[in-house]
């Protein structure tokens, strides 16, 4: 999905993310540049301890499963629990069912994905990294919803206690001059 978003390409023989991959992209929201810094973390069990550290500074989490592989859907329950425990309150959560281009191999219905998203206050999309279907829409929604929450001051005054230390959210800057915009 990340290569489709940032490079507008698809590599049919590419492997799943191993460890962590990083890309960024910028959207114009209400005349402000909103830069998404996207950390693609591996979903495999072996990388779970490493990926936990990325939740803490996140304003949005996109959890992706393969609609043709019910095991990936089953793992979502663990990921959702961890994200809710470790990330900011009011984190933007997006659930994505990927590989809709393989409809004939589908194991997870759209309804099942939508139900899980609804139960967990998540936005829901189905995508295809191969064809590009809804890829841009997922990340645009991430940028728009994050910007909207930030503009309302959702994260400005919140802090989390961790090991008896106050952890304040990272500063997010939105500007008109394309200088330092991120989320």
UniProtKB/TrEMBL annotation:
Q: Which SMART domains match?
A: RAB (SM00175), RAN (SM00176), RAS (SM00173), RHO (SM00174)
Q: Which Gene3D superfamilies match?
A: P-loop containing nucleotide triphosphate hydrolases (3.40.50.300)
Classification via SUPFAM superfamilies: P-loop containing nucleoside triphosphate hydrolases (SSF52540)
Single GO molecular-function term? GTPase activity
Spell out the PROSITE patterns in the cross-references.
RAB, RAS
The portions of this protein that span the membrane are none
Which keywords does this chain's UniProt record carry?
GTP-binding, Lipoprotein, Nucleotide-binding
Q: Which domain of life is it from?
A: Eukaryota
The record's comment on protein family reads: Belongs to the small GTPase superfamily. Rab family.
Matching entries from PANTHER family are given as:
LD44762P
Q: Any idea what this protein is called? A: Ras and ef-hand domain-containing protein
Biological source species: Anaeramoeba flamelloides
């Amino acid at each position: 999905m990340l290569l489709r978003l940032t490079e507008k390409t698809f590599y049919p023989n590419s492997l799943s993310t191993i460890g962590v991959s990083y890309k960024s992209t910028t959207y114009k929201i209400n005349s402000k540049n909103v830069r998404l810094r996207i950390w693609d973390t591996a979903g495999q069990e072996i990388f779970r301890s490493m990926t936990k550290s990325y939740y803490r500074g996140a304003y949005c989490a996109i959890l992706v499963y393969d609609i043709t592989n019910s095991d990936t859907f089953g793992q979502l329950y663990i990921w959702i629990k961890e994200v809710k425990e470790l990330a900011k309150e009011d984190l933007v959560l997006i659930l994505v069912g990927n590989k809709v281009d393989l409809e004939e191999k589908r194991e997870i219905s759209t309804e099942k994905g939508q139900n899980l998203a609804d139960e967990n206050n998540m936005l829901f999309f189905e995508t295809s990294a191969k064809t590009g279907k809804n890829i841009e829409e997922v990340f645009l929604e991430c940028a728009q919803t994050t910007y909207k929450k930030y503009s309302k001051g959702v994260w400005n005054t919140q802090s989390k206690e961790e090991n008896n230390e106050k952890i304040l959210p990272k500063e997010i800057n939105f500007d008109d001059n394309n200088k330092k915009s991120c989320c």
